[in-house]
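Reopening this ticket.

The earlier resolution said the output was attached, but the attachment link was broken on my side. Pasting everything inline this time so it's all in one place.
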Amino acid sequence: MRSYLEDDLSGVRLVASDMDYTLLADDKSMPEDMPGRIRALEGAGALFAAASGRPLYTLRDMFPDSWDHMAFVTDNGAAVVCREDVVFKSLIEPATVQALTEFTLEGGYGLPTVCGLDACYVREQDRRYDDVFRTFYHNIVYVETLDHLAAEVNKFTVYFPEGNAVPMRDEVYAPAWGEQLSVTCGGAVWIDIMNQGVDKGTGVERLCEHLGISVADVVACGDTDNDAEMLETVGHGYLVANAEERMERFADFRIPSNNERGVAQVIDAVLAARRA
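Inline output:
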């Protein structure tokens, strides 16, 4: 794959980045001075967007000094927010949430979590994984049962502690649900399920419509399955060096790894190109 340094970034209006193993280092730390970079992009006539499987309330906590100067493609595109404006949200029907819960529990496939707009609902008996859940869901409500929750739900996520989410998606969830819902993996331990047509790619498209810009003028950075549609959709699809080889078919260029702060280097390159 070619290096991003060979790309023409002069027309870029939006930089969208995945979080885990893309923007964030392996230790979950953020690049230095991200607030400064985010505000600099805005000042240069561009915008930064965090594109993640995480919900809005968690992502805003991660950008406390700049959330109102950026955009969010949250829950893999199930909710899109630009600064303080809700651009889009896609809620899963309660009957579908119930059916997914029963399918997961009756099959013994993994640990179900129900992701609402304001909180993530988890069974009390799965509290032992709280440290893992808390990394992604800052607002967790533990309940005795997930049956018939009275919540606005936009994502159903299954946690696989043994790291077998990808084969479980391919062999179990996609065959059973793939024709009616969007089924993807957020790394080795998460299967994420949203409404059909919801993914990071369509989320970025909706954000571009709101901003009045073309997807051709977007840089997207990612590393794994739930980034695939986003990388294919935009004009500048960038894969971090630490991504698995199987992801290369979705992107055009390579950038340095997450631990080398590749996304920060891309932002700096976009700023230099915008100012040239």
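Reporter confirms the inline version is readable. The chain has two domains: 2-89+199-275, 94-195. The mean pLDDT is 97.
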